[in-house]
Amino acid sequence: MLPESETGKNIRQIRKSKGLTLASLAEKTGISKGYFSKLENSDKAPPVSTLLNIAEALGVSITHLFGEKQEPLTASLVKKGERQFMARGGSRFGYSYETLAHKFPRKHMEPYILTIPPEIDQHPLFQHKGEEMFLVLEGRPRFVIGNQEHLLEEGDASMSTPECPSGASTWAAETPKAS
Prior knowledge:
179 residues, alpha+beta, 434 Repressor (Amino-terminal Domain), Jelly Rolls, 2 domains, 6-stranded antiparallel beta sheet, 3-stranded antiparallel beta sheet, 9 strands, 23% helix, elongated
C-alpha cells in the first residue's frame, strides 16, 4: 500500500494509463478539473466518498487507488450457505434478498434471490438503475411490468429496462422465489 502522500500521484498514473484527461475524468465524476489538478499534486488523500467516485469512474477498486494491485477476478463461486441477506427497496415491505455474486467486484449486474412472503399485503412497483431480469424459481407470483399484470409460473422470466416499473406479489398462499 502506498503512503497517503502518493495517492494523488497514483490517481494521475491510473488516469493517464486509461487515456483520460483531467477534463474527461472531471466530467465522468462531476468533480471539477481544478480539484483533480490539486488532488494529483497533493500529499493528502481526499475523503473516501470522493475516492469511491474516482475509483468507479476509472473502473478500478478503491484499494487500487492506494496502490494495491489485484489480479483481475474472472469468476466467483458463492455456495448456498455463503449467500448473504441484503437490504433493498422491498425490504421494508417484508421481501428478503439473498446475494448470489457478492464476492465478484465491479460487477455490471446485481443478481440475488427475492423471496416474497404470502402474508405481505403491499406490493409496490420499483424502478432500478440498469436492466432488470426476473426468473421465477418457486411459486406463482403475479408480476406487473409497466401497466400489465401477468401470472407467472416456475421457469417463467421477464426482462425490462430501467424506465419500466415492475413489481411482484404473491398468488394464493404460496411463497414465490425469483432471481
